[in-house]
Amino acid sequence: MVLVAVVAVAATTVASWRRPQLGAVEGRLRPCPDSPNCVSSFEDRPSHRTEPFEVHGDPKTAVSRLVRQIDAMPGTNVVEVTDDYAHIEFVTPVLRYVDDVELLHDGASEQIHVRSASRVGRSDLGANRRRVEIIRSQWKESLEAAAVD
């Protein structure tokens, strides 16, 4: 029984290492699946909806500033950064599952959209939503600190 559980966890972990198809499509991040392990600022469904990040200051450097902040968090791996898009992986400490966080700067609205999703499984017990809210809180603090300077 223990061996079956170990094999199942190992298989799930290995499956989470495969990168899903990500990126912007027609100016939007991809929709969340029906499973409750994803949040996105492009979603209308309340169970998957989160707010985008507000941009203050130089919009051309907003994504890179936010990525630097996120990169200081434990378990991160910055995969891709452009002027308006970023993909960051988060690896859980024990089971080594991988979650993907994407950022997309919307120059028209001066917002950075966000999507955070687990690669495997159905439920993440709210981990992606909590992660986005931690990032949001740190982002607001950094904006407030910059405004004081």
Order of helices and strands: HEEEEHEEEEH
Rg measurement, Å: 16 Å
How far is the first residue's CA from the last residue's CA? 59 Å
How many DSSP H or I helices?
3
CATH class value:
Alpha Beta
Describe what you observe in this structure:
- This protein is of the alpha+beta class.
- Strands 3, 4, 5, 6, 7 and 8 form a six-stranded antiparallel β-sheet that branches.
- The protein has one domain: TATA-Binding Protein (2-Layer Sandwich).
- The N and C termini lie far apart (59 Å).
- It has helices at residues 2-16, 62-71, 127-148; strands at 24-25, 28-29, 38-40, 53-54, 76-81, 85-91, 98-106, 111-118.
- The chain contains three helices and eight strands; from the N terminus they run αββββαββββα.
- This is DUF1499 domain-containing protein.
- It comes from Maioricimonas rarisocia.
- Pfam families: DUF1499 (PF07386).
- InterPro entries: DUF1499.
Please provide a brief summary of the model.
The chain is α+β, with helices and mostly antiparallel strands and about 150 residues long. It has helices spanning about 1-15, 60-70, 125-149; strands at about 25, 30, 40, 55, 75-80, 85-90, 100-105, 110-120. It has a single domain (about 1-20, about 35-149), classed as TATA-Binding Protein (2-Layer Sandwich).
